[in-house]
Write a structure and sequence with these properties.
Length: 106
Amino acid sequence: MTDTLARLEQTIAARRGADPASSYVAKLHAKGVGKIAQKVGEEATETVIAALSGDREELVGEAADLLFHLLVLLGAREVPLAEVLAELDRREGLSGIAEKAARKPD
Ligand SMILES: N=c1c2ncn([C@@H]3O[C@H](COP(=O)(O)OP(=O)(O)OP(=O)(O)O)[C@@H](O)[C@H]3O)c2ncn1[C@@H]1O[C@H](COP(=O)(O)O)[C@@H](O)[C@H]1O
C-alpha cells in the first residue's frame, strides 16, 4: 500500500513542471496551494457523503481522489509522505492515554 502511495508521490513530483494543458497535477499547481487545499476539502466532503450513502464503489473512488489530492497538497508544501508515515509509526508505539499526552502536552 505504501509502495503505491510512494510511487504516486514520485509521479506527482515529476508532473509538477509539465504542461498544464496535458497534466492535471501541473494544472493544479498552476492554480496555487489555495486551490489544491480547496480540492482536498471537496474530496474529503465527497468521501464522507459516499461513506454515509452506503455505496461501497463510490466510497472507494472518492477515497482514492482524496488520497491523490492530499499527496498533491503535501508535495506543494514540500512535506514528504515519509514524514507523515513516520508520524503514524511514532503514534503506533504509544498507548491511547500516552498518545493524548504526547499530542497535547500540558
Ligand atoms: N490519481 C490521479 C487522479 N485522481 C483523480 N484525478 C483527477 O482529479 C480530477 C478531479 O475531478 P474534478 O471534477 O473534481 O476536478 P476538475 O473539474 O478537473 O477541476 P476543478 O474544476 O475542480 O478545478 C479529475 O480531472 C481526475 O482526472 C487524478 N489525476 C491524476 N492522477 C495520477 O496523477 C498522475 C499524473 O497525472 P497528470 O498530471 O494528469 O499527468 C496520473 O498518472 C495518475 O496516476
